[in-house]
Structure formats: structure tokens, C-alpha cells
Amino acid sequence: MTEILMPKATAVWLVDNTSLTFDQIADFCGLHPLEVKGIADGEVARDIRGADPIANGQLSREELDQAEKNASYRMKAQKSRHAELLKPVKKGPRYTPVSRRQDRPDAIAWFLRNHPEVADSQIARLLGTTKATIDSVRNRSHWNAANIKPVDPVTLGLVAQLELDEVVRKAADKKAKEDAKRGITGDGPTLRPASETGVYEDAETVDDEAHEEVRETREDAASVFSSFSDEGDED
């Protein structure tokens, strides 16, 4: 059955401009007969402006005339060119030139390393790859795993910067909402104090060694100076 464009608006027009029964209108528009009765009573779709199915190419005058003469007749909708134009176009899988397909594993590795919050389905859609390929890169079971290295997909020419930014932003927003539901804050681990990392102890050790070296140098210089002084006294 052909779907009617703006079914309630079409039903409004048929109620106002024809002698069709509620059942005939309901069948044509894909509505329940009680909805059509509600339209006729002014209880449903009171603010909706009627849409003429003949004018928009979904119903022929011959069909309407035949239905008005026979209450048991069910009208057949025509395929309207307007409906085709308004129908959402589903995007097919992204086409990647053959010369660049070998770069997709590198782009996948970049996502896995830098943006683990991006879902595999998003990566697959953006790069024109499959979840199986993504899993093989993640598990290092890909046939070319030894040569795969993370590379920005924009640099590889696989996606535009705006597309990449949009995917990353949506993934980050989704993760933030999920973390908020679980009570996880956005504060990450802080740096440990230097006293806990041993930095102070190392610095003190270095300072002690430096001081000892300076002291020995001074003693050596004093010894040399003393020997020169003794030689001068003998002369």
C-alpha cells in the first residue's frame, strides 16, 4: 500500500470536500475510523489545514468519483512525485577510493588510541569500514597488524575535519551523560606530590653529592696553594 503524504491533513480535506464514508477515508489515509469521526466532529486535527490528495497527485478524480458512488469501494492511492521528493534519503556506506583503503587500519588505530569513546558503529560509518576490521585492528589480529600505526584520518584524506569533530563531540557528550548517570565526575587522577614520588629524595642526594664534590675541589685547591707557599718560603 502506498503511504499517504500528510494523512491527517488529507483526511481533513476528504471529510470537508467529499461524501466518502469514515471507513473509506480511514482506509485511504491509514487512520482508524474513530479518528476520522473525531475529525468530522471537530475533536481531532482541528488546527490542521486540509491537503488535497488530487492536487498533490496521490488520488485521481476517477478513483474519488467511483468511491463516492460505491460505499464499499476502497480507493487506491497513486505514487506521488511529491512524496518521493520528501522521502528521506538513506545514506549508503561511505565510498573510499581504492588507493586509500589501505590507510583505513591506520585511521582505525588512531580512533582506538585517541578516542575510545567513539563507538565502533560510528567509526565504521565514518571510515566506510566494518566492525570486523575494527576488531581485528583492536585485537592485533589484522593481517597487516605489524605495520599498522595510528594516523589522523583527516591527514590521510579519509574524512573532513568538520565530520571528525562532529563525531568526536557527539561521542564525548554521550559519554559525559552516561558518566553523570553513574555518578562519575569528570575529574581525572591528579599528580602525586613530589614527596611521594621520591623526587625530593633524589634532589637531596644530588645536592649532597654536588656539595661533597665542591668540598673536595676546595681542599685540593688549598693543598696546591699551600705547596706553592712552602716552596716560596724555602727560596
From TrEMBL:
Acidic residues: which segments have biased composition?
A: 199-211
Q: Which organism is it from?
A: Phenylobacterium soli
A Pfam cross-reference name: TrcR
| Ranges where the record places region Disordered | 173-235
The Basic and acidic residues compositionally biased stretches are 173-184, 212-221
UniProt-recorded name of the protein = DUF1013 domain-containing protein
